Amino acid sequence: MSLASAIHDMVAPAFHAAVQSGGAKKAKGGNGLLLFVIILALFLIRTYIVQFSFNRAVPALVVRLAAKPEKILANFRPLTFVEAMFVTLLASALFN
User: Which of 23, 24, 38, 55 would disulfide-bridge 78, Cβ 3.0–4.6 Å?
Assistant: First the structure.
């Protein structure tokens, strides 16, 4: 067996496989679910930050800026988690 035929025997299967698949690498599966979970976790963290900051900042701003803060604070209702989700989604859609 000559050197050329030995090299041909080693290279030919890899070459034929590359030509048949178009030279592209095979797509690795399973990353879609992980990406979805990470995006969902980041969205929920943002939602909690929006809820926490709104419920802390608005009463403090009302006390400092309003003429009659007692009247306004009597009607203040804290932001729920679902409402914070909608605010976060709205802000993401508007500013991205």
Answer: 55
